[in-house]
Design a protein that fits this description.
The protein has helices at residues 7-16, 18-38, 71-85, 88-97, 107-119, 140-188, 193-196, 201-219, 227-250, 267-294, 316-341, 345-356, 369-397, and strands at residues 43-51, 121-127, 130-137, 299-303. It is an alpha+beta fold and 398 residues long. A four-stranded antiparallel beta sheet has the order 2-3-1-4. The chain is rod-shaped and about 165 Å long. The chain starts with 6 loop residues before the first helix and ends with a helix. Residues 190-197 and 253-265 have low confidence and may be disordered.
Length: 398
């Protein structure tokens, strides 16, 4: 039959070791609490931005920047743009500026410090087009300044990427319009069709050689003032100016045989193309002016970074709770050793008496010193009284 275990037995054991258990708990909680004060503190702050849907669905620039109508696509675009803004160049710049980086002599050390820097940055989507970024550091002022600069860089990246896209489209339109204007000027000079059909310098040089040969043949019959020779000279000068302009343009960008296509045979088509280009160019300029003034309103700062006052790590309450748990574990081990591992005095006395062949009289209860003195005085007084009484009886008997 199994022995029964009563709750009062546990309570009696706790009451028996109450003093030692209280000391263990106090020391454990105090140790962990003090440990939290000695550990290196870490402060954290964050910001939350919201990219409004009109940033992705603006009808004014829908032909330049395609719109987005899916929430998931908007969310992914915001996440990718935030990560693109917090580039390695920005990390290195902030690390050197605020002394987060130590002296890195090798590329390995620089990469390692950059990795530690990024470990202190947390980025995640809050909801919809909202995105949250947090940064942690041991210095609260550095934490605040770094987070603020990250916020400025992220918002400026959203703004600049939109403006740069529109400016790039406008620059392409300007080049097309310039190419069209040059083509129309060349059509008025009535240069040969092969030379005007493309901007290939080989064709132009071939046409120039042909003009030079014709001029050499005509000069044998006529003088330089002849109208035919003057027309050839004019055509040669036009081609030379075209080659010179082509050489100037190729010094800044690559050659393209499709930049200019002459449509001298159909002036209505050329006029229609040029009018549409000018219309698009005007719309693009208007969109660019409006976007420069309003694109900053498409990015909302829901929560701006604040100067952290209390450290996020270590947390004193958490360490105190850990100390309390560890204290209870130490108390359990202490009571277990006292009650189970070390046998009680009664068991020890019984074993000793069995070996010696004597009788075990048990354990006497603890008697305080004051009570012991009172009992001793009482016994002496009793012995004296009994002695005097016996003497009196002897005297009477005599």
């Amino acid at each position: 039959m199994k022995d029964k275990v009563y709750i009062r037995d546990f309570l009696s054991i706790i009451f028996k070791y109450r003093l030692m258990m209280a000391i263990i708990l106090a020391v454990s909680v105090g140790f962990f609490f003090e440990l939290s004060s000695l550990m290196k503190k870490k402060y954290s702050t964050d910001f939350t931005i919201n990219v409004y849907s009109k940033y992705f669905k603006n009808p004014l620039i829908s032909q330049i920047v395609p719109g987005m109508y899916s929430i998931q696509e908007m969310k992914q675009t915001v996440e990718s743009m935030v990560k693109e803004a917090i580039s390695d160049e920005l990390i290195d710049e902030l690390g050197h500026k605020y002394g987060i980086y130590k002296d890195a002599e090798t590329e390995y050390e620089l990469t390692k410090q950059r990795m530690f820097f990024r470990d202190n940055i947390r980025m995640y989507s809050d909801s919809g087009q909202s995105y949250k970024v947090s940064f942690s550091n041991s210095d609260p002022m550095v934490t605040y300044k770094v987070t603020k600069e990250i916020l400025d860089r992220v918002t400026s990246h959203f703004i600049n990427s939109r403006i740069e896209t529109i400016e790039y489209v406008r620059s392409i339109m300007v080049k097309k319009l310039q190419s069209l204007n040059v083509t129309q000027k060349m059509a008025k000079t009535e240069i040969s069709d092969n030379a005007l059909a493309s901007k290939n310098p080989v064709v132009l040089r071939s046409e120039l050689n042909k003009i030079n040969n014709d001029m050499s043949a005509l000069r044998k019959q006529f003088n330089t003032s002849h109208p035919k020779i003057q027309n050839l000279i004019q055509r040669r000068n036009t081609i030379l100016s075209w080659l010179k302009e082509f050489k100037t343009r190729t010094s800044t960008r690559e050659e393209s045989s499709e930049d200019a296509i002459l449509m001298s045979n159909n002036k209505e088509v050329a006029l229609n193309i040029s009018s549409k280009l000018y219309e698009k160019y005007y719309d693009t300029n208007m969109a660019l002016d409006l976007e420069k003034k309003s694109v900053s309103k498409y990015i909302g700062v829901i929560h701006a970074p604040q100067l952290p006052v209390f450290p996020t790590w270590p947390k004193k309450r958490l360490f105190a709770s850990i100390g309390l748990i560890v204290g209870f574990m130490i108390c359990f081990v202490y009571v277990f050793i006292k009650e189970v591992m070390v046998p009680p005095v009664e068991v020890t006395l019984q074993e000793v008496s069995a070996k010696l062949g004597t009788e075990d009289l048990g354990v006497f209860e603890y008697l305080p010193l004051s009570e012991f003195k009172m009992a001793t005085n009482y016994s002496k007084h009793k012995d004296i009284t009994s002695t005097s009484t016996s003497k009196q009886k002897e005297n009477i008997f005599k």
